Amino acid sequence: MDHKAYADIAQATRRMFIRDIVLAASIGVHAHERGTRQRVRINVELSVQDDGAQNISRPAVGADDLARVVDYEAIFNRICAITQAGHVQLVETLAERLAETCLIDPRVRRVLVRVEKLDVFADAAAVGVEIERRNG
Fold first, then answer.
1. Architecture of domain 4-134
2. Which residues of the chain are modeled with pLDDT < 70?
3. pLDDT per residue as tens digits for the range 67-79
4. What are the structural domain ranges in the chain?
5. What's the pTM?
6. Residue 54 in contact with residue 60, Cβ under 8 Å?
């Protein structure tokens, strides 16, 4: 994943990420993929507006207050819930749903989501998709 554009001092943003979530999901367009679960790996990176953006020299995290930052546990739990919510045909659809849930918090300026199916081809580590979406 390209990490360059997700943290920017001039824009008072920080990069937040959750890496290598491996879950069993009901996903796929083929008949043999319905009714079974297969492993997917999910990665998300978020560009988060600093709650203290007006004063870059005093970032929000310095206040040590969870309410002033995006809660990665809440995002993780929503990712798990979306993945378990029922059958999805396309990794693209799952990626879009994950991006939407990350952008619920208006402080999230953009999100990069990668969804990989891990057990499709014996000769490939993974197949999947990566998308980037923005708030506003």
1. 2-Layer Sandwich (3.30)
2. 1-11, 52-63
3. 788 999 999 999 9
4. 4-134
5. 0.85
6. no
